[in-house]
Structures are given as structure tokens and as C-alpha cells.
Automatic annotation (TrEMBL), chain A:
GO annotation, biological process: transmembrane transport
Keywords carried by this UniProt record: Cell membrane, Membrane, Transmembrane, Transmembrane helix, Transport
Organism: Cognatiyoonia sediminum
Localization terms from the record: Cell membrane
Membrane topology: Multi-pass membrane protein
Protein name according to UniProt: Oligopeptide transport system permease protein
Family membership noted in the UniProt record: Belongs to the binding-protein-dependent transport system permease family.
Keyword Membrane: yes
Membrane-crossing segments per the record: 9-30, 101-122, 142-162, 174-193, 233-255, 275-301
One Gene Ontology cellular component annotation held by this UniProt entry: plasma membrane
Domain ABC transmembrane type-1, first and last residues per copy: 95-298
One Pfam family here: BPD_transp_1_N
UniProtKB/TrEMBL annotation, chain B:
Top-level taxon of origin: Bacteria
Keywords from the UniProt entry: Cell inner membrane, Cell membrane, Membrane, Peptide transport, Protein transport, Transmembrane, Transmembrane helix, Transport
Subcellular locations according to the entry: Cell inner membrane; Cell membrane
Main localization category: membrane
Domain ABC transmembrane type-1, chain residue ranges per copy: 105-294
Protein name: Oligopeptide transport system permease protein OppC
Transmembrane segments: 37-59, 107-132, 144-163, 169-187, 222-249, 277-298
Automatic annotation (TrEMBL), chain C:
Stretch forming the signal peptide: 1-24
GO process terms (BP): peptide transport
Species this chain originates from: Cognatiyoonia sediminum
Keywords carried by this UniProt record: Signal, Transport
Official protein name in the record: Oligopeptide transport system substrate-binding protein
Entry keyword Transport: yes
UniProt cross-references to Pfam families, sorted A to Z: SBP_bac_5 (PF00496)
Entry-linked CDD domains: PBP2_OppA
One CC-aspect GO term: ATP-binding cassette (ABC) transporter complex
Species classification: Bacteria, Pseudomonadati, Pseudomonadota, Alphaproteobacteria, Rhodobacterales
Occurrences of domain Solute-binding protein family (ranges): 83-466
Entry superkingdom: Bacteria
Length: 307, 307, 543
């Protein structure tokens, strides 16, 4: 097992390298550039800027320098958009924010999602099932850009209970609304996957055998049905967890939380090359890492799985 | 499940020859139509399709016709009314919302169905192959998915726009490119566990071709979770379409989609023009509920363990 | 307790709190107006986005400018009506040929660490802003000021020490120009010309703009800065005119979504926010004291692609003029935007200083007359029965979309022209526009300074901002002549007439700044055309 983990970690390096090169190519071929605006800069000003940020170098050299700086000094370079900040600054400031609201969203989405899904499955076609399905669909039809303004209108304007945005270092009253908005749709998906997975498991022979033996239902669910039920949920949770802790652009936009979620879209809009690369590598590394964790958990759930 | 169990017991009473005579698909169809919610939802979906195709005949106005006397006085003149012929009121540009909802429903149904189909076909086959073959092949295939999940996808879309120009077809390509990734992960996770089951081991021992094993033994056992995930994917793809259009690739004014209408409605909701959100979101809700129940019905109908 | 009674109780408590605070602080009154001041003098406003920089040398956007005018003080300031008043400089004199300016600085101006602000600080700041080493995107402003050697310094041909600015002594700054600029003194109110503290920059490098490091000479100092969330500045006790400052702390909150910002304003979290397009009439009816619209120095227009190889149809001036005539601007300004914008028939904003809007024939016609004339012109061009198809591109935004929808329908309903609308993401849009990859594109231009040439120079065939690629030798000559003319107005009239006749662009409307202001906030410089405001001019009155 240890050998497997090491092999997977070793392969992460070339994978990230491919990711870096691909993203670089995409970024540079896309129209526009970090210093284009509706007032084109005079050529001499542009020349200074390109020299400062190394954009006057040949393409392969830019990639090489970038990879060298990242690997040897963990230096992701200066932001092109924000003149006095480096990519390290931006991630160091924004990542803890999204990590906080993402973590709580994850905890809430998983707890409620799985409970709701299991409850719906073991009482299939009862009012409990219908309610759970109703809630999970309801949560899905209110996309974040509808949900977020609604939450703000209700809790900030009408009730005046919670601030309508900001982060203030993560004080609890600033965290509630972003977490609610982010957790809801994930919760809905987890509930639906759990419900369906549980239904299938309950229908398999070995559970039927257990039922036929007259084992108490609760025991069957907890001892036998739960683990296999979690397989597809886990597959979903790997990428979902990365999605949650790296935040969501809509959460940052609507609640002014200052997390890194907004940079996914904004840095691309601004063609802030170094920030795009920093974010891409962060997401790439987290994706690879959590997919490894998921694979290890598979083996724990189903000991027959060998890699 | 009750319905299906009855179905099974009924089938058991039928002479063997009769069962053999019916194909798997006919069998599944019969099960599907015994599920009332699924059948009803299928009709709802068909009705939505007909609405999208022919609903425009009922509209009193062209979907791009701007009534200049209504712009700016939407709040009292543009309200939904049978008398004015604006059944759903007008949008903020003074256009008939009914005609726009008709058109938006059509686009969004197509986006949802195409995206889900690509996800189901490509994602399932890719994931099942990776999981079944395992080892190095699995590692390479899944790291490929990791890379696609992490690259700045926005640039892919922008480049598609620049290279191929704007068209609905490109929108579907864009949707298709991203929709199958999570599905592949989920399918692979399940396959890891399925391939250790006796029926697969038996097939392997008897020398069945791997591709046949995947198609005949693995994929049918994946279908339950695959269909559920596909129904989860549909609403997010419908919303994602509005982001693609935001970049300039997809649906452009005066055409529209449910995603675009909902996002406009969400903005206007905060100014008190609530109907601009209610009508598109109502169609969105109906669509998603219908897909959910059809998915649930399909899952039960195709579940191999019930046979 | 029901919800309603809880609310009533809370209101009662807060009323008591406010009442007693006002009583406790009842003595504070405004020194000029005598109004009773509120005890809480904090001002919170919404910004759309994080500014790229709050270093005067590299700053580039107007929101950053708002922050910098609080943190730093330049040679001259703008009074609430936009006129020039002393800043760090108490006076200035220019030589007879207008090429040398000498500024006399006050001796009591202090940095927030107690150091005296000297002429040397300005010299350092200007040379730094122009230096290739800093590579500031706004270094072109130094070029715009026509400082001696500015272009050469930026191009790296000459050392920054050769730039035409010298501190004669601590309180005398000499500036040498390459051409006389009537509005030069106005330019010293711009943030690029603000002084910076050399020792701080040398000690902290790029980190000097962080709270705690930054040393500034304005009425406020930076106390907290969380990028993408908020920026807080508090009163600078060392500021020479600190006694006249009333607002104690200023907070700018980044709120990307304007509808959410409005909700938060209505919930009392903000003192100032933007009014979304189309919402002004409703808000004005509901909150007459709070919704305000004032002219803003920008023009909104559509441009035609006049390059060789661009589609043939729009190379016909009649077609272009017909399209311009068929746009009912009043519908766009009164119904679509409805925020006090003005219909535009000239490119230059009507409120530009010293500019008298010339009488363009189209402006005095009724829309029916315009439509009739448009149809005639189209018939002449051979499109009597429609048949013209046009691509219109704009960058993705709700309000650009609304305008484009309305315009395309006007063209369709009046002229039978079929318009294909296309929105593009900003950078893609810019590239398409500057490469001439469009037929009709949306444009917007904001004044760099308050004079008509800031708009009309775009029509110069050599201008880098002339995205239409409009070439007219007469216009070029008129613009060149206007630079040195005692009264450039006749030239400007002629250029505007050419624009109306040749229609390289269709002016559509002149911007307005449409905002909500908390009722207790006073002193806002509504008469300032560029909307350059200083927090130290503001105050809050007790209710």
C-alpha cells in the first residue's frame, strides 16, 4: 500500500508539469493580455512592462523560468493585475478564507446530505422520502446566484440578523450565509446519490439474506449496507471537496468574502497569467491529492479492491 | 421497489419460453411504464418539448420584439396579464417573457439532454474502462481526467470562440467537454468494486473479451448511479450554459435560455419585478422534477439485480 | 414576543441610543454651515472591485484614485466645484512662454510619520513614476503632462534624473514642459503626481503600500486593507489641515454585484452605492433625498469599422447616418437607463468645461423627422426594402446588452435592418475591436481632463484610440489648430459637424453618475464634473 501511495505521489509531478505547460499554452493563445485595456498603452510603456514581467522572453523560456522559480523557491511570481501583491500573497490571504467556509460547507453538506439520503432510502415512497427528494431538488433549482441575493435580502434587509457580506477574519456571523449558500447544492447532490446508492445496496442479495435471517433493520443498515452505499458518494466527494475548499466565484462575488474562489474567473478575465497559473497548480495538486485519498478509502470500504 | 418486486413475481409465473422471447429492453420498458411517477414525468418532458417547439404559436409577440412604450415602466405596465397578451409579463427590455420562456426552455432542454448524454456515454465508458483494466492504464486515464478538471477551462471556451466562431453547436461541444469528467470518476469508482464480483470473475475465467465484459457486465451494474448522477448534472449544465454564453460562445441575444432568464430574473427580483424570476424558474423546476422521476424510473427499470 | 414586537423593541432601543448619543455630542457643529454633527463620523461606501494598486506611481483606476486622494495630497486640490485650490503647494507661477512652472510648497505639510513634505518628495515621485524600472502602466500620464524628457525616460533612452522636474529647495518645485499646456495645473490634482515617501519605499519595497508600512501625507492614513474585501483609512493626525477634517474613518467595501450592494445599502450597511441601470426612477420616488444623478465625464457611442476590407455596406456614409438617425436616444436615456443620462448628438460630453454644444441639425429634429430622413438615406443607398444585415458586438454587461437590444430593434422596426447581436468577454472584445474584427462595436470614453479635446482627439487619424480608423485630413487639421488656438470652440464645432455628417461613430448618450447617498451624509461635491471627491470635504449630520 505504501508503495502504491509513493507511486501515485511520484506520478503527480509529471502530471502537474503537463498541466502547467497546457495551461500556459492555452493562456497565451487566448486573445488579450494582462496589460490590454480599452486605452492601449504606448509602445514604450508596454515594453517596460513586458521587460519587468519577463513577457518579452521566448515562450519556452518563460515556462522554464516559471517552473524553476516554483520548484526551487516556491515562488509563484508577482500578480500582473495587482501591482503590489505576489501570487503567494493572494493565495496566503484568500485560501484560509475559502478553506474555512469550504470546510464548514463540507461538514454540513456531508452530514445532512448522507442522513437525508439514507432516511429517504430506507423509507422509500413515504412522506419522508418525498420530503427529502423535494428538499434536494429545491436546493438544486435555486442556483447560487438566486440563493445568495435571497439570503441577503431575507437575513440582512428584512430581519437585520446577519451582515450582508464581508469576512472580518471569519467571525461566525459573517460565515453563516456563505456556508449556507455553498453547502445547499452540494448537500442536495450528496443526498440524491446516497439515496439511490442505498436503494441499490438494499436490493442486493446479501442484504436480502441478512433480512431473511431476521437481523434487526438498524443493524443491517449500519453494519452491512452503509459501507457499499458510500462508494459512489466518495467518488463524488473527492472533486466536490476540492471544489468546496477552493471556494466558489459566486460566493466570493455575492458575499465579498475575499476568498480565492473569485480568482478562478476574475484572473482569467483579467488575463492575470501568474495568478491563473498559481490557482491552476493549487487546484491540480489538491485534485490529485484528494483523488488519492478517495482511492485509499475505496480500499478501506471494499477490501477486495487492489490497485 | 414494491412495484418491481411484483413485476418479478409475476414474471416468475410466466413460462420460461415467454420470458426468453422478450428482449431486455422490452422488459425494462414494461417496468418503466409501471412506475406512475416516471411515466407521468416522461409525458411532462414530452409536453415541455412540444411547448418549446410550438408554444411560440400562442405568443402574441415575437420573442425579440421590443415594446418601447414598456421599457422603464415594467413595474406597472409589464406585469403578467392575459389582456395585454403578455401572459408572463415582459422582461426588463420590454420583450414578451412568454415568447422568451418558450425559446429558453427549448435551448435548455437541449443543453441538458445533450450534456447528460455525453456524460453518460463518454463518462461511463471511459470510467468503466479505466476501472476495469486498472493498474497503469487506470492511472494514465484518470490522471488525464485530473488534468482536464484543473486546466483553466475558460480559455478553452474562449479559444473555441475565437477559432470556430459563435454557434449553438460550439456551445454543445463546450458543454460536452466538461460534463463527462465527474461521471468518469464515479463510474470508475464503482467499477473497481464490481470487477471483483463473481459474475465478472466467471466471465473473465471463461475468456470473454474484456470489451464485452465491460459492456455486458460492468456497465449495466453502473447504470443506477450513472442515471442518478446524470439527472443531477442536468440542472448544473443548464446553469453552466449561461456562463458559456456570458463569454460569448453560446446563446446570444435576442435568443435566450432558461439559465440566462433566471440570472436576469434574479437581478430583477431584488427590484421587486418578481415575475421575471418566477416564470423561468417554474419551468426550470418542472424540467428538473421530470428528469428526476424519469431517471428514477429508468434506474429501477434497468437495475440488473431485479432480474 | 412576535416578530413585529421584537422589531419595534429593537427600533425603540436604537432610537434611544441615537438620541442620547446626539445629546452627549450635541455641541459639535459644522464650522461653516452650523449643522449639528453626528457623533459617528464614519463613511462607508461600495467599490465595484479591488483596485490594481494604491501606490500613486502605479495606480490606474478611478476607484484607486478615490482612495489615493484621501491618503495622499498633491500640489493642487480640487474644490467641491472642481476649481483649483492649493494643496501641498500654496501657489504657482508659470513663465511667459508657459514652459516652466514654479510651485511654492507650504512648510507645514507633514508625512504621517512626522517628516516634512518637501519638493524633493515630488521630484522623487515623478521620476519614479516615469522610470522603466517601476514600469508603471500609468507612466503615460507623465508623458501627457509633457514633462521635458518624459518620453525618453520612459523609453529608457535617458536616465530618470533628466526628467523635467527639479526641487530647487525644500519648498520650491520647478517643472519644465516641452509644450505649453493650458490645463497643466489641473493635472497636478491627479494621483500620478502625488508625492511618495522615499525612505519608506526603500525600506519596504513592494510591501510599502501595506497597512503599518505606508507613510502618507493626505488627510487619512491606511489602517486596514483586506484585498477583495475592504480598505479602511483613518484620520491622519499629522495632516496640516487635520482640524478641518470631520469624517474620522472611511471604509470602502468591495461588493461586485450592484444589486446586492443596493440591498446592503438599504439595510444600512453603506452610506453610498451605485444605482443599477433602470432603477433610478423607482428609487428616486421612494427615496427622493437619497437617489442622486449628476453628469459624469464619459460618452457612450457605437463605432463603425471604416478599415479597408471591412464590410462594404457600412462604408456608405448615408447608411451610417441613417443608422444614427434611427436611434431614438430619448428612449435609451429616459426608459432603458433612466438615470439622468443625456441623449447625445455630439461626441463631447455636454457638461465639459468651456464647451458649448454646437447645433447639430439632427439634435433639433423630432424622432419622426429623423426616421423619415433615415428612410430616405437608406433608399438612396439602395436599401429601400431593408435587406441590410449588421453585426453589433459589445462587451458582456447587463446595461450594454439593454442598449444593444433597444438599438437593434429600432433599426429593425424603422429601417428593416437585421442586426446580429454578439456579446464578448472583455479581453476578447478589446482584441476584436482593435484588430478591426467587427462591423459595429460599442465604445465608451471618459475624459482624462476637463476639456473638449480629451474627447475629440479620438477622431484624429493618428490617435491610438481611433478604433473606427476614421481618416479625415480636415478633422486632423482642425484638431491640430485647436491645440494652440485662443478660442478652440469653432474648431470643435466643425469637428462635431464632421462626426454628424460622416458618422464614423454614433454618439448615443452622455453618462451620469447615479448613486444613492445616505441622508445624513453631507458635503458631497456634486458639481465636480470628474466626480473627484475627498473624504475630508464630507461630514455626517445628526438626525
Amino acid at each position: 500500500m505504501l508503495g502504491y501511495i509513493l507511486r501515485r505521489l511520484a506520478i503527480a509531478i509529471p502530471v502537474l508539469l503537463i498541466l502547467v505547460v497546457l495551461s500556459f499554452i492555452l493562456m497565451y493563445t487566448a486573445p488579450g493580455g494582462p496589460f490590454n485595456s480599452d486605452r492601449p498603452l504606448p509602445p514604450e510603456v508596454m515594453a517596460n512592462i513586458e521587460a519587468k514581467y519577463g513577457l518579452d522572453q521566448p515562450f519556452w523560456k518563460q515556462i522554464a523560468t516559471y517552473v524553476w522559480n516554483v520548484t526551487t523557491q516556491f515562488d509563484f511570481g508577482p500578480s500582473f493585475q495587482y501591482k503590489n501583491r505576489t501570487v503567494n500573497d493572494i493565495i496566503a490571504q484568500g485560501f484560509p478564507v475559502t478553506l474555512t467556509y469550504g470546510f464548514w460547507s463540507f461538514v454540513i453538506a456531508v452530514t445532512f446530505g448522507i442522513s437525508l439520503g439514507v432516511a429517504a432510502a430506507i423509507r422509500q415512497n413515504t412522506w419522508l422520502d418525498y420530503t427529502a427528494v423535494g428538499i434536494s431538488i429545491g436546493a438544486q433549482v435555486l442556483p447560487n446566484f438566486v440563493m445568495a441575493p435571497l439570503l441577503i435580502m431575507f437575513f440582512t434587509l428584512y430581519l437585520g440578523w446577519l451582515p450582508g457580506g464581508g469576512w472580518e477574519g471569519g467571525q461566525w456571523n459573517y460565515v453563516i450565509l456563505p456556508v449556507t449558500a455553498l453547502a445547499t447544492s452540494y448537500m442536495a447532490s450528496i443526498a440524491r446519490i446516497t439515496r439511490s446508492s442505498m436503494l441499490e445496496v438494499l436490493n442486493t442479495n446479501f442484504i436480502r439474506t441478512a433480512q431473511a435471517k431476521g437481523l434487526p433493520k438498524q443493524q443491517i443498515i449500519v453494519r452491512h449496507a452503509m459501507k457499499p452505499t458510500l462508494m459512489p458518494v466518495l467518488s463524488y466527494l473527492g472533486p466536490a471537496f476540492v471544489g468546496m475548499i477552493t471556494g466558489s466565484v459566486l460566493i466570493d462575488v455575492f458575499f465579498s468574502t475575499g476568498g480565492i474562489g473569485q480568482y478562478f474567473v476574475n484572473s482569467a478575465f483579467n488575463r492575470d497569467y501568474s495568478v491563473i497559473m498559481g490557482i491552476t497548480i493549487l487546484v491540480g495538486a489538491l485534485t490529485i491529492m484528494f483523488n488519492l485519498v478517495v482511492d485509499l478509502l475505496y480500499a478501506w470500504i471494499d477490501p477486495k479492491i487492489r490497485y | 421497489m414494491l412495484l418491481n418486486r411484483n413485476a418479478v413475481s409475476q414474471l416468475e409465473d410466466v413460462p420460461i419460453e415467454a420470458v426468453k422471447g422478450r428482449s431486455l429492453w422490452a422488459d425494462a420498458r414494461a417496468r418503466f411504464f409501471r412506475n406512475k411517477a416516471a411515466t407521468a414525468s416522461l409525458f411532462v418532458l414530452i409536453a415541455l418539448g412540444l411547448f418549446a417547439l410550438f408554444g411560440g404559436l400562442l405568443a402574441q409577440y415575437e420573442r425579440d420584439f421590443v415594446d418601447f412604450t414598456l421599457i422603464g415602466s415594467n413595474a406597472y405596465k409589464g406585469v403578467p396579464s392575459i389582456e395585454t397578451g403578455h401572459y408572463f409579463g415582459t422582461d426588463s427590455s420590454g420583450r414578451d417573457l412568454y415568447a422568451r420562456v418558450v425559446q429558453g426552455t427549448g435551448i435548455s432542454l437541449m443543453v441538458g439532454i445533450v450534456g447528460a448524454l455525453v456524460a453518460v456515454v463518454v463518462g461511463t465508458l471511459f470510467g468503466a474502462s479505466a476501472g476495469y483494466f486498472g493498474g497503469k492504464i487506470d492511472n494514465v486515464m484518470m490522471r488525464f481526467v485530473d488534468i482536464l478538471m484543473s486546466i483553466p477551462f475558460m480559455f478553452v471556451l474562449i479559444l473555441m470562440l475565437v477559432i470556430f466562431g459563435r454557434s449553438i453547436f460550439m456551445l454543445f461541444v463546450g458543454i460536452g467537454l466538461i460534463s463527462w469528467l465527474d461521471m468518469a470518476r464515479i463510474a470508475r469508482g464503482q467499477t473497481l468494486s464490481i470487477k471483483n464480483k463473481e459474475f465478472v470473475e466467471v466471465a473473465v475465467a471463461t475468456g470473454v473479451h474484456p470489451l464485452r465484459i465491460i459492456l455486458r457486465h460492468v456497465v449495466p451494474n453502473l447504470l443506477g448511479i450513472v442515471i442518478v448522477y446524470a439527472t443531477l448534472l442536468i440542472p448544473s449544465l443548464i446553469i453552466f450554459e449561461s456562463f458559456i454564453s456570458f463569454l460569448g460562445l453560446g446563446v446570444q441575444e435576442p435568443n435566450t435560455s432558461l439559465g440566462a432568464l433566471i440570472s436576469e430574473g434574479a437581478e430583477q427580483m431584488q427590484y421587486g419585478l418578481t415575475w421575471q424570476l418566477y416564470f423561468p424558474i417554474a419551468f426550470f423546476v418542472i424540467t428538473i422534477f421530470a428528469f428526476f422521476f424519469v431517471g428514477d424510473g429508468l434506474r429501477d427499470a434497468l437495475d440488473p439485480k431485479d432480474r | 414576543m412576535t416578530l413585529k414586537s421584537i422589531l419595534t423593541a429593537t427600533t425603540a432601543v436604537s432610537l434611544i441610543a441615537v438620541g442620547s448619543a446626539a445629546w452627549a455630542d450635541g455641541h459639535a457643529t459644522h464650522p461653516v454651515t452650523g449643522e449639528t454633527l453626528a457623533s459617528d463620523q464614519s463613511f462607508t461606501y461600495r467599490d465595484l472591485d479591488e483596485s490594481p494598486s494604491i501606490d500613486p506611481g502605479t495606480a490606474e483606476d478611478s476607484a484607486g484614485g478615490d482612495i489615493l486622494r484621501d491618503l495622499f495630497e498633491g500640489l493642487m486640490n480640487q474644490a467641491p466645484d472642481g476649481t483649483l485650490v492649493p494643496g501641498v503647494a500654496t501657489s504657482f507661477a508659470s513663465s511667459d512662454d508657459g514652459l516652466v512652472y514654479t510651485f511654492t510648497l507650504r512648510d507645514n505639510a507633514k508625512w504621517s510619520n512626522g517628516d516634512t513634505v518637501t519638493a524633493g518628495d515630488f521630484e522623487y515621485a515623478w521620476k519614479r513614476a516615469a522610470s522603466p524600472e517601476l514600469a508603471s502602466p500609468y507612466s503615460w500620464f507623465i508623458e501627457l503632462m509633457s514633462l521635458e524628457n518624459a518620453s525618453e525616460v520612459i523609453a529608457g533612452d535617458v536616465d530618470p534624473s533628466e526628467l523635467g522636474v527639479t526641487a530647487i529647495d525644500d519648498t520650491t518645485l520647478e517643472v519644465r514642459l516641452t509644450q505649453p499646456l493650458p490645463y497643466f495645473a489641473q493635472m497636478t490634482t491627479h494621483f500620478t503626481t502625488f508625492p511618495v515617501h522615499q525612505a519608506t519605499i526603500e525600506a519596504h519595497g513592494d510591501d510599502w503600500t501595506k497597512p503599518g508600512n505606508m507613510v502618507s501625507n493626505g488627510a487619512y492614513v491606511l489602517s486596514e486593507h483586506v484585498p477583495q474585501e475592504k480598505l479602511v483609512r483613518v484620520r491622519n493626525e499629522s495632516y496640516w489641515d487635520n482640524d478641518a477634517t470631520i469624517i474620522d474613518s472611511v471604509t470602502s467595501l468591495i461588493i461586485n454585484d450592484e444589486a446586492v450592494a443596493l440591498t446592503r445599502y438599504l439595510a444600512g450597511e453603506l452610506d453610498r452605492t451605485d444605482v443599477p441601470a433602470g432603477q433610478f426612477p423607482r428609487l428616486q420616488a421612494e427615496y427622493p433625498e437619497q437617489a442622486v444623478s449628476v453628469p459624469l465625464a464619459c460618452s457612450y457611442y457605437y463605432m463603425f469599422n471604416l478599415r479597408d476590407g471591412a464590410p462594404e455596406e457600412i462604408q456608405d456614409a448615408n447608411v451610417r447616418k441613417a443608422l444614427s438617425l434611427a436611434i431614438d436616444r430619448d428612449i435609451i436615456t429616459e426608459n432603458v437607463l433612466a438615470g439622468g443620462q443625456e441623449s447625445a448628438y455630439t461626441f463631447t460630453h455636454w457638461a465639459t468645461a468651456g464647451f458649448e454644444t454646437p447645433n447639430i441639425p439632427m439634435a433639433s429634429m423630432t424622432q419622426e423627422e429623423r426616421n423619415a430622413m433615415a428612410k430616405e438615406l437608406m433608399a438612396e443607398a439602395g436599401y429601400a426594402d431593408g435587406g441590410l444585415e449588421i453585426d453589433l458586438v459589445y462587451n458582456t454587461s447587463e446595461s450594454h446588452k439593454s442598449v444593444a437590444i433597444a438599438v437593434s430593434q429600432m433599426w429593425k422596426q424603422t429601417l428593416g435592418v437585421e442586426t446580429t447581436l454578439a456579446n464578448q468577454e472583455w479581453q476578447t472584445f478589446l482584441e476584436a475591436r482593435s484588430n478591426g474584427d467587427y462591423e459595429v462595436a460599442r465604445g465608451g470614453w471618459c475624459a482624462d481632463y476637463n476639456e473638449a479635446s480629451t474627447f475629440l482627439d479620438l477622431m484624429d487619424s493618428g490617435s491610438g484610440y481611433n478604433d473606427s480608423k476614421y481618416v479625415n485630413a480636415e478633422v486632423d487639421a482642425l484638431l491640430a489648430e485647436a491645440k494652440t488656438a485662443d478660442n478652440p470652440q469653432p474648431n470643435y464645432d466643425r469637428v462635431e459637424e464632421f462626426i454628424a455628417q460622416d458618422t464614423p461613430i454614433i454618439p448615443i448618450y452622455h453618462y451620469a453618475s447615479v448613486k444613492m447617498f445616505a441622508e445624513d451624509l453631507k458635503g458631497w461635491p456634486f458639481d465636480n464634473f470628474q466626480q473627484n471627491w475627498y473624504s475630508r470635504q464630507l461630514y455626517k449630520v445628526a438626525e
